[in-house]
Specification:
Elements: E1 3-8, H1 22-33, E2 37-42, H2 43-48, H3 58-68, E3 73-77, H4 83-96, E4 102-105, H5 113-119, E5 125-127, H6 132-143, H7 153-160, E6 166-170, E7 173-176, H8 200-206, E8 213-216, E9 219-220, H9 231-234, E10 240-241, H10 244-255, E11 262-265, H11 274-286, E12 293-297, H12 304-312, E13 315-323, H13 327-332, H14 344-354, E14 357-364, H15 371-385, E15 390-396, H16 406-409, H17 436-444, H18 465-481, H19 483-493, H20 497-511, E16 517-519, E17 522-523, H21 525-537, H22 542-556, E18 560-565, H23 570-582, E19 599-606, E20 609-615, H24 617-624, H25 628-634, H26 640-653, H27 658-662
Length: about 675
């Protein structure tokens, strides 16, 4: 049997590295079942928590960490963003151990496997697509020579290997073996070898996360053919799921992991088989498994009954890939199904009524997209953000090898240093810096590193790679917090919402305010919200100033907070939400209430939401003044009964804040 080391190469996960990759853990389980001695090394985790220093010596230190494990076989799993570091690392390991067989897998090398074998001699084999069976059969071929006197025989056996699902180097050239069909019955795949990974708490601590989140593979693949996505190709354009019994077993296994707070179901199209999902939810609930979970799917593949069943089984949030609010754009990217006729706002509102949180996934920078299309997306985002439980995700259209657009765009793709679409974020370690060896790979190999090139639509004049980068990395962060304010500002300035966002982001970038920017082109939300709210307050319209103060307070309230407004903001909020529900966009401020009386509003946080309640003058003073004697002095006409009633009303709104309780 072989000593097998599976490695997650270093990268900088821009959302916080909060969970291990599933691929290596599935491979580890499959290899262990065949008797191999398997270890897993998560270099991304070690970078995240500071065990490895992210500087120009990182790859050398990673190579030493790998070799300290004394592996006989090395498996590297690569995402698109980690491909430069992965190939750099493979070369560093090979320099030290030229006899060590190295196999590469994951979605990073997808569709460019032969180019990798041809150009990167450190890689001896690439697994194509789903790899559990391929990997163990490749190990079996190598293990036949384990007792040979020459360790290099392992490399020779790998080169001669005809196991289906591989690209190997044979006679100094790439050789693709027979196609391997996907695994028809996912129940046959061994569960992930969780014992190889560190604990959920370790990942949460490294990510500075308030809860631990681990992935779960309940299904694979997608039957659609969207041109921006490579998932259908990776899984042979099929969608498969575990049986309800096996899925419930998987949830039960996750519940035994110490310190796990929530499960993330990784299947891109989890609700594709509606009846099976209903059965999975029923079985999980029947067993009394209360572990919370999240998943992702398409908005046209859910309905009220399904969402209610998922909610009852512990699902708390779903990511929906909506991509665009413009039907021509959806046609352009081959987004099939019922998406072109779907009422996105109505469906999100229905999910909110069920109590299911939603993430609305949208894209900008799509080939053929117009300014009107971008504006429609931003308006949709702002209108959806006022719904309970809806958060936003905005992405820059990524051109990757094999996703249906790379060849068509050709020379229009540009390498813009420091500016990258979403799928390659995190390749710079540390932030804003790419090792010279990796930068050279990216610059010289436009095939393998095609995703590092960016595309700017000709149909949107004035749009540059930097403006798209600023917009897609930041607009959703602002629209989630100040959706009404931003729409009202656009109406006040008689311009597009896009123009308001572009101007703000460009000024923030040019100012070089280090408090605003956490990493290249990405703002820290709290200071950015303060800055934008303050700018809105100076626009000259008291209604917009009240909106900005109201939305900023919703965002900043941690327990409860009393705010006195120059005019009552709630009628203005209701009017803005009414226009959002009607979805015409706010083109004029005439529909908003004019004037209004001063009003005190008490904001009280209850879990993830904040309740805003208008108060009478007496209730406002009671909320401000915890001392009964001082309050009665200020209100000599009030009696003890009125005071007691006021205190009870305030307690009904929310428990007293810490500062009030300690006064």
């Amino acid at each position: 049997m072989l000593r097998v080391l599976l490695v997650q190469p270093p990268h900088r996960d821009t959302f916080g590295y909060s969970m291990p990759p599933l691929g290596p853990l599935h491979l580890g389980a499959a290899a262990q079942a065949e008797g191999h001695n398997v270890r897993f090394l998560d270099l991304a985790l070690e970078v995240r928590r500071g065990d490895l220093i992210a500087d120009d010596t990182l790859i050398e230190h990673c190579a030493e960490r790998i070799l300290a494990e004394e592996p006989e076989v090395l498996g590297l799993g690569a995402m698109i963003s980690s491909m430069p570091a992965t190939l750099h690392l493979a070369a560093a390991v090979k320099t030290r151990r030229p006899d060590l067989p190295i196999i590469l897998g994951g979605q990073g090398p997808e569709t460019v496997e032969e180019a990798i074998i041809a150009r990167y001699p450190a890689i001896d084999a690439v697994a194509v697509g789903e790899a559990e069976q391929t990997f163990v059969e490749w190990l079996a071929v190598l293990d036949d020579t384990h007792n040979a006197t020459e360790a290099s025989d392992l490399l020779a056996r790998s080169a001669a290997c005809d196991v289906p699902g591989l690209v190997v180097r044979r006679n100094n050239a790439p050789h693709r073996t027979a196609h391997r069909p996907v695994i028809a019955n996912l129940d046959e795949v061994p569960p992930p070898a969780w014992e190889l990974a560190e604990s959920p708490r370790a990942y949460a601590r490294a990510a500075d996360a308030h809860e631990s989140l681990f992935p779960l593979d309940l299904g694979r693949g997608c039957t659609f053919d969207c041109s921006f996505c490579t998932t259908p190709g990776f899984w042979d354009r099929s969608a498969r799921q575990l049986s309800p019994q096996q899925a419930a077993d998987a949830f039960d296994q996750m519940a035994t992991l110490e310190g796990l707070d929530c499960v993330y179901v990784t299947h891109d199209l989890f609700t594709v088989d509606r009846e099976r999902v209903l059965a999975i939810c029923a079985e999980k609930k029947r067993r009394g498994n209360t572990l919370p979970w999240e998943c992702r799917t398409r908005l046209d593949l859910v309905d009220r009954e399904l969402l209610e069943a998922m909610r009852a089984a512990g699902c708390r949030r779903i990511l929906y890939g909506v991509e665009s609010d413009a039907a021509p754009v959806l046609e352009q990217v081959r987004k099939g199904g019922a998406t072109k006729t779907l009422d996105v706002r109505e469906t999100l509102a229905m999910a909110s009524e069920v109590g299911m949180a939603s993430i609305l996934g949208l894209m900008c920078g799509i080939p053929g997209e117009t300014q009107d299309d971008v504006e429609a997306n931003l308006q949709l985002a702002a209108e959806a953000a006022v719904l309970d439980g809806v958060s936003l995700s905005l992405h820059w259209f990524n051109v990757t090898p094999g996703n249906g657009c790379a060849n068509a765009l050709g020379d229009t793709l540009q390498l813009s240093p420091g500016i990258h679409a979403d799928l390659v974020r995190g390749h710079d370690l540390p932030a804003g810096h790419v090792h010279s060896a990796q930068a050279k790979l990216i610059a010289e190999d436009s095939e393998v590193f095609g995703a590092f090139r960016v595309f700017t639509p000709d149909s949107t004049p004035g749009v540059t790679p930097r403006s798209l980068s600023l917009l897609t990395r930041n607009a959703h962060l602002l629209l989630e917090v100040l959706p009404r304010t931003l729409r009202a500002l656009a109406a006040h300035q008689e311009c597009r919402l896009r123009e308001v966002l572009d101007t703000f982001l460009e000024h923030a970038y040019e100012d070089g305010d280090l408090e605003l920017w956490e990493e290249t082109y990405v703002l820290r939300r709290a200071p950015a919200v303060r800055r934008l709210a303050n700018e809105a307050a100076r626009c000259g319209d008291l209604r917009i100033a009240s909106l900005a103060q109201y939305e900023r307070t919703l965002f900043e309230t941690t327990t409860r907070q009393l705010v006195r407004f120059d005019i009552d903001p709630l009628p203005i909020v209701r009017a803005m939400d009414a226009t959002a529900a009607a979805s015409p966009g706010v083109t004029s401020l005439h529909a908003l209430p004019q004037g209004g009386l001063p009003r005190a509003v008490l904001f009280a946080r209850q879990g993830e939401s904040v309740r805003a309640v208008t108060l009478s003058d007496f209730l406002a003073d009671a909320a401000d003044e915890p001392d009964d004697e001082r309050l009665m002095t200020a209100w000599p006409d009030a009696d003890a009964t009125l005071l007691a009633r006021a205190r009870q009303q305030l307690r009904d709104i929310s428990p007293p804040s810490e500062e009030h309780a300690s006064s």
